[in-house]
Design goal:
heterodimer; A: mainly alpha; 4 helices; globular; B: alpha+beta; Alpha-Beta Plaits; BirA Bifunctional Protein, domain 2; 3 domains; eight-stranded mixed beta sheet; three-stranded antiparallel beta sheet; 20 strands
């Protein structure tokens, strides 16, 4: 896991991860996307995303985070808080 | 019982919450296994085999076991157990196992592994529960439906059923349209020790299965069009088929059972409010008759590869709660019903749309009628005079 030094880098890293998990181009990642409102983000893709977040960013994934990290803004906020990223 | 035992130390210590799910899957991993038991501390797996096995076979069995454990337990999350109702300590009058007496009276008859017939006492009891569930359905103005016992293989595939529950499927087939095949079958078919002596080549490709659930038929009937009226409630009863291999060793696990469902289709709040209302009404019913039970979060029995993610998703979003009745004679509980919310899974996969064009949400309340009757008999015995009056009188509402 490489260190994340800025908010912009965090967003870029997350965008790349989302594109990889959902098998779409980075440009297709909507910054406000959320589970269920975007065809690629269904229940199975959501669990793949949780595993990928754990592996890429080292965040703990449990029942609470699975049900809370359901949008790009929510994931960004969680990562900012837990990785202590400078905004 | 076989004397061919094999002990395997799992490479990953099996956590307590996965002992049941993994143990039940071991029945499916090899036809030579007649029994599987995981030690309470998760450190040992005992297999009993139907016949002796050479070293190569033993190595193959161990590899299968280790792969199941690895897939289901690696990185598994501790589930959040939510108990919505807990009346397990409610006093009930009957302490014994009712099955020997039920068999002696021909109230329960084992036709084949997992296949049972029931006599007049059990049938009347089930009718009483059915009357109650129909009363419950009427509070939602749930419309009656009749669904087939067969279910389309094409439609089941469309909702990813084969990926999630391949182990429990029951296939329907027929002889191929071929004079030689049919003549050969009619002259030579006979039941041998483990089944009919027919070549698999004699059978057609699978187009239909025996239905594993009731509500799927409703969703299939609504597919590829807007949901009429924007929401609906429906109810139906039907035979359901879930093959459970060597786990089918009692009335608790039947291959063929009947389920009454009340089904909700519409926006998320309609489905969730209806599910919650049904749960509260059923709680009143169970209090009235005095059953000992609890309602707690649960997950479906997904097969090995799907289990970890799907179960965690169900748990995190509180999609399934089970009504677990106490079986006093063995101090364990048995799931007799469930309250389910599928989010927009069926709406999305079957293209059932709300007036705003978004996929519909679905949910259902489902009770296994034989299990409900069995749990009741475990708690109240076989003498109707000792039963709660509403049940004795067949629950007229």
């Amino acid at each position: 896991m490489s260190p994340i030094s800025s908010d912009e880098q965090l967003f870029n890293d997350l965008q790349s991860l989302l594109a990889e998990v959902f098998k779409v181009e980075v440009s297709q990642i909507d910054p406000s996307a959320q589970l269920g409102e975007w065809p690629a983000w269904d229940s199975m893709a959501h669990m793949d995303l949780m595993v990928a977040l754990e592996e890429r960013f080292g965040v703990e994934i449990n029942a609470d985070t699975i049900s809370q990290l359901i949008s790009v803004p929510a994931i960004l906020e969680h990562l900012r808080t837990n990785l202590n990223v400078r905004s | 019982m076989s004397d061919h035992k094999l002990h395997i130390r799992p490479q990953i210590l099996i956590p307590a919450h996965l002992i049941g799910p993994i143990q039940s899957k071991l029945a499916y991993i090899d036809e030579s296994i007649s029994y599987a038991q995981i030690a309470g501390d998760g450190s040992d797996i005992e297999l009993r085999l139907r016949n002796s096995a050479d070293q190569a076979k033993l190595a193959d069995l161990e590899a299968k076991v280790q792969s199941v454990v690895a897939e289901m337990a690696t990185g598994a999350m501790q589930p959040k157990v939510e108990i919505l109702e807990d009346y397990l300590e409610r006093s009930v009058p009957f302490p014994a196992d009712p099955v020997p007496e039920l068999i002696a009276r021909n109230e329960v008859s084992l036709e084949h592994s997992g296949i049972y017939s029931f006599g007049p006492l059990v049938s009347k009891l089930i009718e009483g529960f059915e009357n109650y569930l129909l009363t419950l359905a009427s509070t939602f103005d749930a419309k009656p439906h009749r669904f087939p016992t067969l279910i389309s293989a094409e439609k089941l595939g469309r909702v990813n059923y084969f990926r999630a529950f391949p182990h429990s499927l029951t296939f329907a087939t027929h002889l191929r349209e071929d004079l030689h095949v049919i003549n050969d079958f009619s002259q030579h078919a006979k039941y041998e020790e483990t089944g009919l002596n027919v070549s698999p080549d004699s059978f057609s490709k699978i187009q239909a299965l025996l239905s594993p659930a009731v509500c799927y038929h409703l969703y299939f009937s609504l597919a590829d069009k807007p949901l009429p009226g924007g929401s609906l409630a429906a109810t139906s009863v039907g035979h359901c088929f879930r093959y459970e291999s060597t786990n089918m060793n009692s009335l608790e696990r039947m291959w063929d059972f009947t389920m009454r469902e009340i089904i909700f289709v519409g926006p998320a709040d309609f489905v969730l409010d209806s599910r919650e209302s049904a749960r509260k009404q059923v709680a009143q019913f169970l209090e009235t008759i005095g059953m000992a039970y609890k309602v707690e979060s649960a997950n479906d029995p997904f097969f090995v590869g799907e289990f970890r993610k799907q179960a965690a998703f169900q748990n995190a979003f509180q999609l399934k709660y089970e009504v677990r009745a106490r079986l006093p004679f063995k101090d364990r509980t048995l799931a007799v019903g469930s309250y389910n919310y599928h989010q927009d899974f069926f709406g999305r996969h079957l293209n059932i749309t709300l007036p705003d064009g978004k996929p519909t949400h679905t949910g259902c309340v489902a009770f296994g009628l034989e299990r409900l009757a069995y749990a009741f008999l475990c708690q109240f015995g076989l003498d109707p005079a000792a039963w709660p009056a509403p049940i004795r009188e067949g629950w007229r509402g």
